[in-house]
Amino acid sequence: MQLRYSFRLYPDTGQQAALAKAFGCARVVFNDAVRAREDARRAGLPFPKAGVLSTRLITEAKRTPERSWLSEVSAVVLQQSLRDAETAYRNFFACLKGTRKGPRTGAPRFKSRKDSRQSIRFTANARWSVTGGGRLNLPKIGAVKVKWSRALPTAPSSVTVIKDAAGRYFASFVIDTDPAVDAARMPDTDQTVGIDLGLTHFAVLSDGTKIGSARFLRRAEKKLKKAQRELSRKQKGSRNREKARLKVARAHTKVADARRDFLHQLSTKLIRENQAIGVEGLAVKGLARTRLAKSVHDAGWAQFVAMLEYKAVRYGRTLVKIGRFEPTSQTCSTCGVKDGPKTLNTREWTCLACGTLHDRDHNAAINVKTAAGLAASACGAPVRPGAIPAQREETGSRGLSPEPCAA
User: Fold this and answer.
1) What are the C-alpha distances in Å from 323 to residues 22, 43, 51, 276, 292?
2) Nearest-angstrom CA–CA distance, 60 and 249
3) pLDDT grade, residue 221 (50/70/90)?
């Protein structure tokens, strides 16, 4: 399977200027492609094909005074920008037809230089390379310093250079993982577990383990409010406002990075220790419209389940998601009698049929495991195997689904 490995880049001043030029040229080509498609739609003409757009918006545009500066960046960057526009339109039309899974995507929109995320992509024919000193050599940009936090398992097929809202640069490599190596990293086990996700505790396992909720956003809320207040007082368009904006973006980045690290460590630990995992399918979008919206977003349930999905596929584990309407909190895990709905402040309850005292979350986790059919057979194998494959696409444009980073 394909995964992304991201590493921090530290370009010097000249390289930052070259990257800004490449981001701008890729953005212009993408916007020109969207404009050409929209003009054709308004005129009732068929959409111009990718080859026609490539000739008109790149090859011929370089010869004009208005677009001559496109030749200052790698042609591969411009071609990949056109491919991003093509893929964005393909995903949009697939959503209209109902053939694309996942959330619906709208029509591609024009990019702005003020977008919080800028990116360019280099494929193998761009002749980028990693130097002997460990730097990333990019065409017409130079050898950029990289912070290698780990070794690449195989030779990458492409690299995407990303600049986020906080002004940080990253190199994202597409890697084809080796199933044999992955199997050696995570040998089979006979353990299974059910997980009940919540707000009081982030997760309660069917074996009784309770994992506390870190509440990363809540803990940083005071600092975030102060930074946002300072930003609102700055004059629009001033350099001080840009400095204040970066301060806010960096504060939010620390929260997101801490949450992502916590979710990666926990999901990897659960995948390593269990051959099969049962989890409840939560309606996160619906819960995010209630008074608990901030806490729901802060918990990151959807991101956690997505990590479990692709790691289960990668390491040969089984992940089963049960229906969101399964009465896991109403059913006694001892005798199986449904005891009726309970308010959120009821954390413990006694079954009227068998008299067992239940911890609400622990009981729900056991019921999740039972409903997922993860009771072990005599040979120790899960009764209900079958993994849920996770979608993975390399992206740098609107209308494309982001790919999770490898743990």
Assistant:
1) 46, 47, 46, 17, 21
2) 39
3) very high
